[in-house]
Design brief:
By secondary structure, the chain is α/β, with parallel strands linked by helices. The protein is about 35% helix and about 15% strand.
């Protein structure tokens, strides 16, 4: 675990890098070797044998991530957020019942609805932000995993992690939290009782829209954690060293970016809530958001970098708004330093729980007045 003398932002800034012993370069080299010399006595005294189970550059980024999340078991980096999430479900025993949110990251929801049954899992979808509904849906002895995403895509529903952890553990289930949109800057799910945290490190952790990566972080190095370690090694799902290097570089400015992006998101949420062409702003930092009270308790340093707006005039006006922004980038994904806007219903397709008039906004680090003015122009153009 990290040196308790220093706070996370300090440790992240230096990315806990050891000096290169040969050059004293202050940035660790990228380790690309796939195989390692065996000792004359036939041992592998460094612990490194082959590139699929483990890599030193990946370990560097994992150490920074484990420090930021306060994960005693450490971190496991995967080749994408989906690879990390699927590993959690794939390492459950056949016959397990799992609970997931009704509204959540769309690609994972699709996988759970269509593929999880082939692994012998049965999946229940529940309003995860309604603790009573979770209590009714959980099956003591049968439910082995509860999967939470908070704030949840794309309505930013807030789930009470501590309350759901208590319910899950009483039923003999483990609790995993997709904390991508909170990030460790705003929420520490392990400290609230979760067993496992997952992030799409593709998003704000890397922050520069140039790496696809996922990470799992564990509260304890127990049997389930060891199984995840074996799963990643056996399935060859480790992150590549170049991506790990870029991620480590991004992590050094993560606390700074997260603070700026959440401050800008709150500012935009408050201004857009008064805009004549906006019927609703969905952001946990606004007092009228249904999850605000829980968010105030469970989040810190603000409420995150994601918000959604519902445009007066419905789907056509929402699509027209996205079509006429000039500064915001019309693209999927989130968490980068550049701000993105997306009409979610058209990318999710039929069966989406996303309202058709909704635009999802990922707030970057541009000047917040420029972001506001561009969106204001587009909204006024789309809703005359
Ligand atoms: C992007 C994302 C994922 C999936 O991550 P990938 O790296 O794209 O596979 C999972 N959950 C959330 C909340 C995400 O935003």
């Amino acid at each position: 675990m990290p040196d308790p003398l220093y706070r996370p932002a300090t440790l992240a800034a230096q990315a806990m890098q050891e000096l290169d012993p040969h050059t004293h370069g202050i940035i660790a080299p990228i380790h690309v070797a796939t195989t390692f010399l065996r000792d004359p006595d036939n041992r592998y005294s460094t612990g490194f044998i082959y590139g699929r189970p483990d890599n030193q550059t990946v370990r560097g980024a994992e150490a920074t991530l484990a420090m930021l999340e306060g994960a005693a078991a450490g971190a496991l980096l995967f080749s994408s957020g989906m690879a990390a999430a699927v590993a959690v479900f794939a390492t459950l025993d056949r016959g397990a019942h799992v609970l997931a949110p009704r509204v959540m990251y769309w690609a994972l929801r699709n996988w759970l609805a269509s593929e999880a049954e082939h692994l012998g899992l049965s999946v229940g979808f529940v309003e995860m932000d309604d603790t009573d509904a979770v209590a009714r849906a959980i099956r003591p002895g049968q439910t082995k995993l509860v999967w939470v995403e908070t704030p949840g895509n794309p309505l930013w529903t807030v789930t009470d992690i501590a309350a759901v952890a208590t319910l899950a553990h009483a039923a003999g289930a483990r609790l995993a939290v997709d904390s991508t949109c909170a990030s460790p800057h705003h929420t520490r799910p392990l400290a609230l009782g979760a067993d496992l945290v997952m992030h799409a490190a593709t998003k704000i952790l890397n922050g520069h829209s140039d790496v696809v990566a996922g990470v799992l972080l564990g509260a304890a190095a127990d049997g389930a954690w060891q199984r995840l370690v074996r799963y990643r090694s056996q399935h060859g799902a480790i992150l590549g060293p170049f991506e790990a290097f870029l991620l480590q570089r991004g992590l050094r400015t993560f606390p700074l970016r997260a603070a700026a992006q959440s401050a800008a998101a709150l500012h935009l949420a408050e201004r857009l809530a008064r805009h004549r062409a906006v019927v609703q702003v969905l952001y946990p930092g606004l007092p009228d958001h249904p999850g605000h009270a829980v968010a105030r308790r469970q989040m810190r340093n603000g409420f995150g970098y994601m918000l959604s707006i519902r445009v007066a005039g419905g789907e056509g006006a929402a699509v027209a708004t996205a079509a006429s922004v000039q500064l915001w980038r019309r693209a999927t994904s989130l968490g980068g330093v550049e701000s993105l806007i997306e009409h979610r219903a058209s990318i999710e397709g039929p069966g989406t729980p996303c309202p058709p008039d909704l635009l999802r906004l990922s707030v970057g680090i541009e000047d917040v007045d420029d972001l506001h003015d561009d969106l204001d122009r587009a909204l006024c153009h789309a809703v005359p």
